[in-house]
UniProtKB/TrEMBL annotation, chains A, B:
This is PadR family transcriptional regulator. It comes from the Bacteria. It holds the Pfam family PadR. Gene3D superfamilies: Winged helix-like DNA-binding domain superfamily/Winged helix DNA-binding domain. Residues 15-87 form the Transcription regulator PadR N-terminal domain.
Length: 106, 106
DNA sequence: TTCGGTATCTTGTAATGCAAGATATGTTGA
DNA sequence: TCAACATATCTTGCATTACAAGATACCGAA
């Protein structure tokens, strides 16, 4: 993952972090991101990302019955996903530092 | 500018911040970004951005002779650009806080 | 006069976030 | 019973983006 991916891929990292914390399903992820202050990540953003991440073997999923509604697809991190989370954190911290260097000057 | 633009448009904000600090030309901007820790923003990224920002009247430019080489196009912020810089700073701070909320949990 | 460094710009590509909407399941109440 | 609603996932198509690669041009010095 290059710097490009970093700039564009901030949500990926957030998803990894939330999944790491606790097994969650897609719909729940959208709600959590909103709780954390993001302005509305539609499912049109999240589901394709989860599918991609599963194809890349960063997450795995299992279907479970819901109390109300169709089956939920719960996601957990694979070892590869955990590694990617660590790499994301490192890149995110570098990005923060770089951008803040640009801004501090004024 | 939406959240999408925010995620993708971090470099825009950095350019605005650097130009605000001091009149600069494109080639110089690429060097500064590298100084600040960014991993190599090629001119293929920066020049199209500057052209777009000028079209949107966030920056204005004047040509000046160089000590060595072709004329340099020096950029300064317009009032609109200054306003956008302030908006970028606000969005950047919100983004930092949101992402760090996701990460802090683990 | 040619070579290397400086400087800007263009073209084409892959990836991204998302709006919009399709699809499916379960609960509830009229 | 069955219509309405909330839950839940997935797909399609679009505009934007960062960037690699390379074209163009100018200048000074060897």
């Amino acid at each position: 993952m290059s710097t490009t991916q970093m700039l564009k891929g901030i949500i990926d990292g957030c998803l990894l972090a939330i999944i790491y914390e606790k097994e969650v399903y897609g719909y729940e992820l959208a709600e959590k991101l909103e709780q954390y202050g993001f302005d509305s990540f539609s499912e049109g953003t999240i589901y394709p990302l989860l599918i991609r991440m599963q194809k890349e073997e960063s997450v795995s999923s299992t279907l479970k019955k819901s109390t109300a509604g169709p089956k939920r697809k719960y996601y957990t991190l694979t070892p590869k996903g955990e590694e990617e989370l660590q790499q994301f954190i490192a890149r995110w911290e570098k990005l923060q530092s770089n951008v803040n260097l640009c801004l501090r000057k004024q």
